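Support case: zinc ion complex. Customer-provided input:
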Amino acid sequence: MSKFQDLMKEKFEKLKSQKDVTVLSIESSCDETAVAIVKNGREVLANVVSSQIEIHRLFGGVVPEVASRNHILAISNLYEEALNQANIRPEEIDAIAVTYGAGLIGALLVGINFAKGLSYSLKVPLVAVSHIHGHIAANYISHSELVPPFVCLMVSGGHTAILEIKDYCDIKLIGSTVDDAAGEAFDKVARSLGLPYPGGPEIDKLAKTGENTIKFTLSNSLKDTENFSFSGIKTAVINYLHTKEQKGENINKADVARSFEECVTDELVKKTFRAIEKTEYKSLVIAGGVGANSMLQAKFKTYGEKCGYDVFYPVLKYCTDNAAMIGSAGYYYIKNGKGLAELSLSARPSVSVTE
Ligand code: KG4
Ligand code: ZN
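Agent response - structure generated as follows:
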């Protein structure tokens, strides 16, 4: 181990018992470049995000190479902006937390390399954080009273899973999708309806004006499990649209959006509540971009109240990709002795939810 790495290990160990820990965090796994500064895992001193949505909308989805290039253009300015917003000097930073996966490899590498540069120049530990754990931690920022254990529904564009959060860094998988993530289904159905990228928020909006008139169904083979399958419903919607077109019949897009959203959210609610009933936990947490869905939030709140569970989801700006959530997760990694990375840290396109 190099002298530098020895020093980092020593500093990392000290942070475990240090009273106040300030983490500068970086997120660049997909189409948002983000930098944040978070104190003690819960207090956001700065949170800046540069979204590339408008750029990728032109292509109907994220173009990885374009994402990487735009991360490079944005990241230095965001770093400066975050320091200004927090009104602190670089020397006051105790650690750099960065998303190492899951995500687009070229996009992740931009954040990772910037983080390495900061770690080396500021001589503070580099902490490699899972994007998935970041989404869960977004709830710690939004709800000061929330502490593990709880059950979490992780629903994003890349993941859909029910997790048992035994402790900050002790996570067990209860169930997950066997094919598409829920967000992927939202995006693909939106695209087939001619809605712009990203499709989730568009479906959310359009569904509000529609009726649940079309009976879309989900795979029956998983009905008694805590696993999900969303590739079938995406195909069912596409087939429905094709049949209507071939017959020259009118398509009520709002009804399609509403019926699809009802079907997917019912499934997420049913399986998550079934999963928590099998545990002794009383808190249910939603994490990830699809967690911003208004129907999903409303159904979780209603069932939560009916069944006696406290339901939590992050405020909107922490639901979708941001760096504050990475700073929060990074803090709990530090306190649990997890995630210290070397300067050889590489990007990982996929990461298991429990890693
Ligand atoms: O967590 P996230 O920002 O990135 C990933 O880690 O994947 O999630 C992005 C996903 C996209 O599929 C997007 O369409 C979906 O979250 N999404 C929504 C809503 N807002 C974002 N899906 C449904 N309703 C929404 N309001
Ligand atoms: Zn995400």
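DSSP finds twelve helices and eleven strands in the chain.

Case will auto-close in a few days if no follow-up is received.
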